[in-house]
Amino acid sequence: MKDKLFSMEFLSALQEKDELFDKLSQKDFALKKIISFYLLLVIFLFIYGIVMGSYNGFLQAISSGFKVPVMFTLEIIICFPAFFIIQLILGSKLGFYQMLAIILTGFVLSATIMVSFAPIVLFFLITASNYEFLKLLHVGIFILSGIFGMKAIIDALKFSCEKKNIYPKVGVQVFRFWIIILAFVGMQLAWNLRPFVGSKNMPFELFRERGGNFYTAVIQPTFELISPRPVRKFKTEKTIKTENQQTKVQVDSLEKQ
Known about the structure:
This protein is mainly α. The protein has helices at 9-13, 17-24, 27-53, 58-90, 96-116, 118-127, 131-162, 169-193, 214-226, 237-256.
């Protein structure tokens, strides 16, 4: 079978993006690659989710391993229809499967970068188990991988516009606005599906109670890491004896008066 359902050729295709984008503009090729890309996406996100939740034990690791792929899947399901309809109105000639394959290309690239950071995350898990730091580390990895993923989609849309003439130029600008919507939807989904890392001071829960928001959850640990912590001064036995002697001298002096 020439076209495998699951293939790692996506990784090598990243070096020849124009060739990949040219093939994705073909309906038959795009349809075949949607399932392959999605399988890659789920596997990479599952691995990263396992690493993400391993901070708080086995149950949290398994829970996060399933929740991270679910979060990305819901993000695509929620945001893709509106984007696709708007592109059609603007004059896009890319079909449903072609557009979905392009979107999945960016998401798979993001997942690939995320899973490549897994050894770094494990290193900090072993050497410095600070809950606030780990939360911010994961947020940073999500943002960095998302930037590369969205850039890949923009490059694919530009290729379809400039070299294939099947995509409107204004559509690229619209997609940049769609990225903002995608980010807000992703943050809200992450908040509703939390915890992913899981605090060791709290019992394991599949989902936390609703309350607060994503922004305060990120800002608060940032200030906790940046702001200096009060230094506790511990009195030695010698210091205590000296203070007691000074107090005794002061009492004797008052009695003599």
